[in-house]
Amino acid sequence: MASQVEALKYIPGTSLNVDGFRFLRPGARHFFLTHFHGDHTTGLTKGFDAGTIYCSPVTARLLIRDMGLRAGVVCPLSPHVTVEVGGVAVTPLPANHCPGAVMFLFVIPGDGGGRPPRTVLHTGDMRWDDGAMMAYPALRALGTLDTLVLDTTYCAPRWTFPPQEQVIQAAAEFVRREAARSAGRVLAVANSYHIGKVLYVVLGEVWGGQEGFQGKGGDMQGGRVGLQKVICVCPFPASEGNRR
Ligand SMILES: [Zn+2]
């Protein structure tokens, strides 16, 4: 779960707020949202008018269409593109978490009086991928990272998970096997969060290309198979539904 500690929600020395809608400060106008999971939007309501929320395009659409925020308070930022917000250079970087999830890299300018620029990476929830992430131009260009804020679930040595692709393939194989054992139509129910999570991808791996495959609300996110709802029905007999 995301921390609910005010000190972790503000970039040190600035009034830039990351996933900290519970902790509005006077004068804070720039809010960054790493992704749309509820533990990171805590305190945010559709009537939000305390400033501008910067996030990925996918998260922006969810904020507007799902949560009902005014489009005027949401500013989508393209991943890997650096912009200036409140005098600070900000680069969103894909977090390898749910659809739309990004980390934010902040480069805070020096004060002209000898204090050098400072770099802060706020991760939100993220799944580290050594090969992919170390190829991010903004990270490769970093000389030093001064502050790393790991506001991410499972950030403890006792949690070790297989690579995502391995999990997807194993779960997809399980669904295929069960479908092959069944007669008639097959219903797969994935119990998951509102967005993201591997099970959407799993169901798409098995049936996503089939005519008649049912998945609702697929236009709002950037997942591999365009699924949004947790219930997916393959209308074919199991033997056909398992053809892929
Ligand atoms: Zn999350």
From TrEMBL:
Pfam (any one): Lactamase_B_2
Q: Which CDD domains match?
A: SNM1A-1C-like_MBL-fold
Single GO molecular-function term? 5'-3' DNA exonuclease activity
Where are the membrane-spanning stretches?
Answer: none
Record-linked SMART domains: Lactamase_B
* Annotated Metallo-beta-lactamase domain residues: 2-158
* InterPro entries given in the database record: Metallo-B-lactamas (IPR001279), RibonucZ/Hydroxyglut_hydro (IPR036866)
Among the GO biological process terms of this entry, one is:
double-strand break repair via nonhomologous end joining
Q: Which Gene3D superfamilies match?
A: 3.40.50.12650, Ribonuclease Z/Hydroxyacylglutathione hydrolase-like (3.60.15.10)
Name it.
Answer: DNA cross-link repair 1 protein
User: From which source organism is this entry?
Assistant: Auxenochlorella protothecoides (Green microalga)
